[in-house]
Amino acid sequence: MNSLNSEAFTLFGQHILWSDMVGNLFGLAALALGWRRSIWTWPVQFLAGLILFGAFYGHLTGSAGKQAVVMLVALFGWWQWQRGKGQGEDGHIAVRFATWRERGAMAAAAAAGTVAVALLFKAYPTLSWDPWPDAYIFVGTVVAMYAQARGMVEFWFAWLLVDLVGVPLNFANGYAFSGFVYVIYGALVLWGMRDWWLRSRKDARPVLEGAPA
């Protein structure tokens, strides 16, 4: 796995690592599959986490631990989408807006989780090079993946908030490819948000008795 941390190429003066490139390309593919509501989004997300876990294990313990959590959430998402498969009009999962109670719970979990993880990173400096932004991105990613697993349109809003911090942080820390990928994430998020928004209205439309499903 050490070869994953070797340099792939140089772009605009930035050194691109194989692990950074391959892991983020899989993450980008997972987001695109999520937009299409394909259940394969979760295996691809799991594979992205596995690649980055292998690259970081024994080298960056905190980063490896974060990828382990991402893989667990990916397994949860796979299980949820297997249960909900076929509920939408087109045979995929049905999407919806979260209730205000769910939104409040996710916002509170994100805030409390960010504080807790940031304090952990500050207590053990080897786990992160920038505790607060790193904690925000990590917890925000987990919350976004949870909302995606539940078919909530707010999944896209959570990703957008992660992008706002992820882009400058990755460029500042030398992970240029991650920064470029987060920019593309932003475009996919806007398109995906529109698609799920419109889809939620279709899936919520009641079927009249006697009408074709």
TrEMBL record:
Q: From which residue to which does the signal peptide run? A: none
Q: Where in the cell is it found?
A: Cell membrane
The family line of this record is: Belongs to the nicotinamide ribonucleoside (NR) uptake permease (TC 4.B.1) family.
Annotated membrane topology:
Multi-pass membrane protein
Species annotation: Streptomyces sp. NBC_00180
Entries under PANTHER family matching the protein = NICOTINAMIDE RIBOSIDE TRANSPORTER PNUC
Q: Which domain of life is it from?
A: Bacteria
Name of the protein this chain belongs to: Nicotinamide mononucleotide transporter family protein
**Bilayer-spanning residue ranges:** 12-33, 39-57, 105-124, 136-162, 174-193
Task: Output a single Gene Ontology CC term carried by this record.
Answer: plasma membrane
> Quick one: where is this thing mainly located?
membrane
Any one Pfam family here would be: NMN_transporter
Alphabetized, the UniProt keywords read: Cell membrane, Membrane, Transmembrane, Transmembrane helix, Transport
Q: Name one GO molecular function term.
A: nicotinamide riboside transmembrane transporter activity
